[in-house]
Specification:
Largest sheet: 9 strands, mixed
Number of strands: 9
Radius of gyration: 14 Å
Structural class: alpha+beta
Order of helices and strands: EEEHEEEEEHE
Number of domains: 1
Oligomer: single chain
């Protein structure tokens, strides 16, 4: 499975994107501020620019793990349906624990990717329902033993 997040609005405090799965538009995304990081940069370069909790992950292509329970979100009620196993991006340089998850504003991201509908400036709405939809698609691919890749551009 191939996921693509195309960042379309790079604002001062947040970044809005469009998420496509296997070429089909699925939802909008919200991330922290895009500070021009790329996966080709060294970790030292990334850490020199990154502001913890306020910087979108580097553009690039990452494997997605569906089997790890999130220590932060695993016990929360809205994630009980997936037993706390949130989609986790692997090997993001300069970052750890990057997830796709529920949230509405840049304050909810901390470097992660929020999914929803960008119907209000600087926010994604209907995030819980959107996450369940995205999760079902990713989980089905995982159950078919397909690798799941995400490209951030």
């Amino acid at each position: 499975m191939e996921i693509k997040v195309r960042r379309i609005a790079k604002k001062e405090a947040y970044t809005i994107g469009k998420m496509y799965i296997d070429g089909a538009y699925v939802c909008d995304t919200l991330e922290d501020k895009d500070r021009g990081l790329t996966s080709n940069m060294s970790v030292a370069q990334i850490c020199g620019v990154k502001i913890k909790g306020e910087t979108a992950i580097p553009t690039g292509r990452y494997l997605v793990d569906m089997k790890t329970v999130s220590p932060r979100f695993g016990g929360r009620t809205q994630y009980q349906f997936c037993r706390g196993r949130l989609p986790r991006l692997c090997n993001t340089p300069g970052y750890q624990g990057v997830l796709i998850h529920i949230g509405n504003t840049a304050k909810d991201t901390e470097g992660c990717i929020l999914v929803g509908e960008n119907k209000e400036k600087g926010k994604v709405l209907n995030s819980t329902a959107t996450f369940r939809k995205v999760y079902a698609m990713l989980k089905a691919a995982d159950e078919r033993c397909e690798q799941i890749w995400i490209t951030i551009e």
